[in-house]
Amino acid sequence: MMTAPGYAFTEISPLMRWRLLVYRCPAARELVDYCKLPVEMEPHDLNELLLAGRLTALERAVLEFLLHTWDGQEPLELSELAALDRDHLWVLTHWISDRVNGPGCYFHRNS
Rounded to two decimals, what is the model's pTM? Predict the structure, then answer.
């Protein structure tokens, strides 16, 4: 692969690609803004927040969806997706039809 002089391209890690998806979700960005999630969160941070409770239905649905996109191990109840608003449904549909990572790509899978 040729690169422009002075530029080196590195592949983005699965965790970084997943964080890009997380930051597309307004509810997740708000959880970071309110210091409920760290800026450089990992999936276990979302899981801990879910277990701690005190989330709105929208926040809970978003975190469940994001955990599902990580490895597909967390079940995704379709009934919970009913809490998603238009902005979050946009993120969901783009994840499903992603042309870069592959449709419905899981960012990390233990094979």
Answer: 0.82
